[in-house]
């Protein structure tokens, strides 16, 4: 029989054990070892059965066990210490509170997914894990962040395999009452909720659930509300599910509803209102529209509201290819806004203009969420140095007339939350050297170039640590593989071979991530005979653990999974290569530490950052990767290997895969395996151990989420808060009126003539250190000199006379406009480098409230015949 109603019955804890409830509901336990150990000691078997979830554990404890724990003075002392430690953690001063005044009172951080813990499955892959690590690091640093997302009743799918190795998806129903969540309530006890208006008089209602991530509240909106119609109840059913309108409604709820949820939370709790709004990828971009609506409802004009909203907004793009961005038909978007939908009173055309691809190469009928994110944020960034460069090139059409290098998209390289991803054994080894307090600070806050104490750890200790972690992984793999084969229909009698899968003394390679085609899951299979040689080498074998999920709608990705699974099923190699289904946080926390080498072979430059290798590195695993994402930035042969890329324009896709796979096999055979198996005194691989030590000491402080969040605070959040304060309604109105006047008059701005004045003719050459005076005649039309900056731009030139790494400096007006309207600007130009050298001049809009000269996308440059020689050869 099936129940017609479901309840979640919570345990009533005895008074001495009441602090357990608070400890279980604050997700700090997911990265705080002492708290986890406390719960585990309450019932070791129950802890294992609960999958390491404190709430499930408490719900399963018997009355007798609760009574025994209540009378256990040692347990109560540990409980009191843990509760006091949590209280100190959430209320004490941390890094942020020690910074100079001026930082934002609060920051709202929006993301479509959050990977906090396996006990709250609201993530699919790297974007969500990054968002979860961002919240945890912000908590450790004391940054007053509010996280905002959606609560998906089915989360992301669970993955299993058919007997033939085909991916199968399962969507378990999640009951929020059984998760570490609490519904946000009004003073009268009713659930607080947000409302969106839909076309045709319909409404979309959502409850607000709160998770507590250390010091950081995470608000999750849930559309499974009884008053909603069935279609609206299902808006938050699945992560990345449904068609275009379904996704649009999810993103409207996340952005517009998310801002309203933040306002409700601050009203009900007294939390400071955010001064900065951070959009983690374009899915939440509609939040800027809601903030504009808030201002226009107070009487602020649309253009002024737009300027004010942009000032306090930060947009992070994670996508290195246009195909990875959400784009909607303009008619679909237009139908959901205006007087019959959301944001009534605001012209839907103004809303559409913020996202339409109205630039060369764009599709003007499509509404692009990343384009809207960039147009609604004064500050934007990619997630690695290389990705910042790729993003500037990809979005250069939004800033016509500017080289990609000047597109205002910077980069903050991602990091990972070390307390979450570092194995307890690794932490204990470090803590023995520097103490628990210093070890915790090094992992969470970072801030040092090197973790020098790693140098004091002996070779024996490092090698024994690596073998212990490898042995744990072997046990984990066998257990998971046995469960997977049972799901595939195998009987116990068929599975005896699993006891011999993997060997704790064999070099172990890990490869785990989502399975889009560009990550090339099956590159290792390009030459199967060569791979078999490596796996079965009599003296230097390797073993490979693979995991990953293909998107449910991606049959090509599923075929890649099946191809890998079928190879791993081959009795000749199945003890050396395994595919583990249902990759998630719980698996990852065992996989990263247990591997010796982390493999990553995407098509360069399509990996925006790729943080899995960072998590592996924090556990002493060496990286073997294509120079893409973060590895392009920090690779060093002292602690890893780079797979050469065959990315020449004349190389087709198949040929490229062949060449790069061959390079991978060669690296494994000639460099990686000899380094692991060549033993020195005492039977230790001295060179390998030194590479592990350098990985920990050199990469460790760089890959931290603490470092990443500090950079966001110092480089983006702080400046955004200052800009937000400066752009009060009157200043925003001034700026928007000025921009309108400049845009209207820009057609009259031109560079008429450029000449270099010197005592002797240059004749195409000049001596190092020589100085000439540039004289530039310009027309400003209806604009004033105070509206513009006339710049000289100078530097080396390439064979096509393009300036490379140029320097800019302003030229000064010499007087009033002439009768013909021309104005003269002058300034010195010094030849400060040898070799091919060139210069040009340009005119940019200038205003004290602009974030940079390229912000408006307006520039005037000389016509081809407006000056003398454009370049000067120096010797």
- Indicate the low-confidence ranges by residue numbers: 865-875
Portion in helices: 25-40%
Number of helices: 28
Largest sheet: 10 strands, mixed
First-to-last CA distance:
91 Å
Indicate the proportion of strand residues.
15-25%
Mean pLDDT: 92
Number of β-strand runs: 29
Computed CA radius of gyration, to the nearest angstrom: 30 Å
What best-fitting shape do the alpha-carbon axes yield?
Answer: globular
Task: Look at the helices and sheets and give the structural class.
Answer: alpha/beta
List keywords for this structure.
alpha/beta; globular; 28 helices
What is this structure, in a nutshell?
By secondary structure, this protein is of the alpha/beta class. 37% of the residues lie in helices and 18% in strands.
Q: Describe it for me?
A:
The protein has 875 residues and is of the alpha/beta class. The chain contains 28 helices and 29 strands. Strands 1, 2, 5, 6, 7, 8, 9, 10, 13 and 14 form a 10-stranded mixed β-sheet that branches. A 6-stranded parallel β-sheet has the order 17-16-15-18-19-20, sandwiched between helices. Strands 22-29-28-24-25 form a 5-stranded mixed β-sheet, with no helix packed on it. Helix 24 links the parallel strand 19 and strand 20 (640-643). Helix 9 (244-269) crosses helix 10 and helix 17 (424-434) packs across helix 18 (436-444).
